[in-house]
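Box 3.1 A note on notation
Throughout this textbook, protein chains are presented in two layers. The first layer is the amino acid sequence; the second is a token string describing backbone geometry. Keep the layers aligned when reading.
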Amino acid sequence: MNPLKWKLHWQILAALVLSLMATVVIKSTGGADAALGANVLGACSFLGKLFMNALKMIIVPLVASSIIAAMAGLTGGRDFRRMGFKTLAYYVCSGAVAVTIGLLLVNVIAPGTVDPEVAARMEANANAANAGEIISAKVEGKSAQDIWDVFLRMFPANIIENASNNGKLLGLITFSVLFGYFISRLDEKWRSTQVNFWEGASQVMIGVTELILKFAPIGVFALVTPRLVELGMDLIEPLSKFTLTVLLGLLLHIAALCGVLAFFKVNPWTHLKAMSDPLLTAFSTASSAGTLPLTMETVEKGAKVSPRTASFTLPLGATVNMDGTALYECVVVIFVTQVIAVIDPSFDPLTLSQQIMVVFLALTTSIGVAGVPSASIVAIFLIMGVLGVPTEYIGLIWVVDRALDMCRTAVNVFSDTCAAVIIAKTEGEPIYED
């Protein structure tokens, strides 16, 4: 069977398997510093950057044209208010459920309650990896005020400058929603021209997206291979309980989302299979925004969600709906405080009220700082600063952050697709042709 004729998710899975095989070969032939490793990783660096650049290139025109076309097609303000309320209600509730799951698990499993020797080893590993210096560079100039700057990013001073940065989609989304909404209120002779233009632009961008996604397996291989080569498996052992706590939390949240799908009479297994392409891509790229073009295409063509609903819910979700990120932030903050209590017996564990504050801050920061690089690290830094927890201990989780970032991004994207399907179902759309 010709692999080029396989479905995209099978091609991506094959790319992941090849990436694992390439990692074994590189490590057995001298690692990244040897000639083979250096050449392969050099090629991966180029191809991975090329693929991500191609995806990022189409994000702004795809998001803008899709949202404007969707909003312009609304019949009136009532449609906008109804869909907007449903979308925001889903995102708030799903995020709250995710953080609550994380809070319960990290307290029950207590992954940070380890032997003093293990805690010392974790701290030494963080220092050896220069994690503190790396993280300090990423969080330089950040403060608790950044949590509330999300509202300022909704209304940027210069929308063109804002649109030039894929990490600042919230302003573009706000502008596109307003632009499309007021198109829907024009007189018919003006409205029809605008609607035809933006629907045509949206279809063009879908075509460009389909072309780029044909190269997704190559991009996935190029992005994943360097991560596997650089991942020090020996350093994961002391953090195994923490890693398992996060993964268990993410799995439980997926199960909860599947339960919500079943409540709305959508087959969870059917939805999971249909969304395999964007989920694998999200896992590989660790970028909700980078996966957005594929997510929109799959939800529209695979789940039969209307372009109007998909174009409204998914770009917004890729910016503000960060269930996996919120859960991760909550687990990390409490895990770090548990380890600090072992290293420094004078440190008092978080009280119940402080843990409730962690829930609120994790939910808020998962939205508020989602547009910056290494958003979770920055958010965790802000939360620890608000609670008075020593921020230098963030480096404890640095070695596994990248691997878990891939997992939580997949959960973020899955939650976005659930939102699109559930809202479409409540709008009376024939989801999965039921």
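The two ends are 32 Å apart (CA to CA). Residues 35-72 form the longest helix (38 residues).
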